[in-house]
Every structure is written in structure tokens, then in C-alpha cells.
Amino acid sequence: MERESFGSKIGMVLATAGSAVGLGNVWRFPYMAGHDGGAAFILIYISCVLVLGIPGIISEFIVGRHSAANAARAYRKISHGGPGGVIGYIGIFTSMIILGFYAVVAGWCLQYLFAFIFGQIHGNVQEVNAYFQSFSTDPIRPLFWTIAFILLTHFVVIKGVRNGLEKASNVMMPVLFLMLILIVVASCLLPHASKGIAFLFKPDFQKLTPHILFDALGQAFFSLSLGSACLCTYASYFNKQSKLSVSAFQIALIDTAIAVLAGLMIFPAAFSVGVSPDSGPALIFLTLPNVFQKAFGSVPVIGYIIGILFYALLSLAALTSTISMHEIGTSFFYEEFHLTRKQGAWIETVICCIIGVFCSLSNGAVSSFKLLGMSFFDFCNNLTSDILLPLVSFLTCILVGWFVPKKIIKEEYTNWGTLKGRTFNIYYFAVRIVCPLCILVIFLHQLGVI
Length: 450
Hints:
The chain has 450 residues and is mainly alpha-helical. Helices cover 75% and strands 0% of the residues.
């Protein structure tokens, strides 16, 4: 049976960019930028995307397109059946864990979307905080939304590459971008919004510290979905004419643009009502609902509409990522075990639902259960972000840079000599030396060694 591929170049780019664009851009990036001083962090972040991100993306693209198979088979094939094949299995395992706990946060976004639609979120910061605590520790409602989000993802994935992944991305990515622009415009028109804009675009280099460098490296690494076997899986659906380096740059550009726009959406509004930019991870669930009410208090209906748009945006961004995470396991199960796509998708869905159930309940009903002193949710989050993602990306760079024949790498990079490949030597040096060292530094920092 002939393997599916993306039907168009724009569909390929939007689908792959969608796999990277998610809560890491709209949720994590703004609070990291807020914590680390705004503009200075953004400049370092962009530098990290260029130095670390693009070579990393290209490397996973090469592994995926060379094999035209799921991640496990892709790494086995490019390493000629050697131990490098285990990298794909780690990536698939990692993606399942990520989808399990990611769906919990995505479910919170859906809950807030419906809560805003029906006017359930109102009052001061303390009342909004009480609402979140009540909801997130409830044993039933978060569980319902978690499973609902995974099932929503499932029904996109079973449609296949062109009718599922590509068609959904062709709709969701432009809609996501349009909603983002609308909220950015509304936010930037608020009184004193200029303070938030200056915070994002006027760097204060006196605030630069090694800690900010580590944060920017880590954010670039995680925002681009490096190390989860996601990019490798999507590249397996690329055709032979796809320009890997150009596609990598386009995806990095889209991902970074949406992250910066997310900051431009949040901080002008936050500064307008005097909210600290370093409110941390709680920003979107505890702080922003109150920001919307205060900022647009003179015209409450606008605050109501902006709130709905914002949580719809978050839900949509989360969905573009969960689709890609689900596809990793789905392609593995149906290709390796010779099943239908639907059967493979159901296996992935059941596994991720089980993980999601435990992650959701660990915030409430079974919060007393700890792994290494952490809730199951926090354990899954830390295991993937601090250990598994850096490990897979590091091993991928070592495999591509040092063990795969240079001839194969150059053929994929230049589309078998049909492209000039002027930047190949720069890429090859980066993937052999620069990327492994940077990822190793991130890894040691996350483990507390540095």
C-alpha cells in the first residue's frame, strides 16, 4: 500500500508549523518573557532558534523523509538497524506522555472557553483564583474535558494525512492567526498599552543573566517540538521535492512570530491595568480573566468577546499540537503492527486517555499520590521536558552528525543534487558541534548540574 503524503506545499508547511505552534507559544512564551525581562529575552530566544532550532528541525526532517516511515522505523532505517533505532522508540514514548498531560491543560482551556461564553467567570482576582482552584481539583469536570480533547484529536487523526492533518491545519492555522491579530489590535489600543509594547521591543541589556540564556535556549528547544519525534513523523509525509532547509526556516519563522504576537496580545493589556508581567504560569488562568474585565470595563461586551476569542485561541493552538502528538503513536501502531489507521489511532487514544486520567486526578482526587515528591502531572511534565526531550534531540544530532554517512545527509539536504545547498556546511557543523553542545548545556541545566 502506497504511503500517504501531504498534497500541497502550503498544507505541508501549515501542518508542520501547527505541530510546533501550541500552548508553548501562547502560554509558556509570554510568561517566560515576562519573567526574564521581555525584549532582551526575545532577542536571545530568536538567536537560539537560528542557532539551535533550525538545524535541529532539519535533522529530524532528514531522518523522517529518508525513511518515509513512522519514527521507530525511521531511526532504525537511517542507523541501518543499529542502536540508533532506540531513539525513535523513546520519542514515541515521550509523545504519549506529553499528549496525556498536555490534554489536561488543553481541557482547562475548553472549560474556560465555555465558562466565558456562559458568563461563569467574573469578579476580582480572588474570585477568579477560587474558580480555578475549584475547577482544577474537581474529580469530574477536568477529567471530562481531558478525554473530550483527546477524542476531538482522535477524530481528526483517523481521517488520514490529507483529509485529516492537512485539511484541519489549512483551516485552523489561518483562523488561529486571525484571532491572534484581532486580540493584539484590541490589546494595543488600550490606555497605557505602550508600556507593554516597550517591554517587549525595547531591550534592557542590564537585565541579561546566564539564567535568561538557559531559559531562552530551553524555550526555543521546547517551542519547536524538538525531540518528540513529531517533526520526524511529519517529514515522513514530505515528498522528494520538499526543500528541507527552506521549510525548516518557514516553520521556525511562523512559530516565532506567533510566540511574539502572543506576548503582544498579553502584555499591553496587562500593563494597561497594572498587572505584573512576571505573573508566571498562572497568567492565562488566574490573571488574564480579570485583566479582560478591567481593561474593557467601560464596554463589558468587548471584554466578554475578547475573553471568548482568547480561550478559543488557546484551545485551537493546543489542538494543532495534540493532533501531531497523536499522529506519532498512531503511525507507529498501524505501520509496525499492520493494523488499519483507525485501529492504530484507537490504541493511541486509549493509552493517552489513561495517562490523561491519572494526570488530571493527580491535581485533585489523588493529589496525595507522589512520584519522587511530585504529583503525577508534574512528574510527567518534568520527565519529558527535563530529560526525554533533550535526550532524544541530543541523540538525534549525534546520530545525524557523526554516524549517518555524510553523503546521505547531503543528498537529503540538496534533494539529490538538484539544489545548490550553499548552507550545507554551516548546517553540518551546527548539527555535529553546536547543537549537541547547546542541548547538553540545557540538559545539565534542567538537571541542576549547571
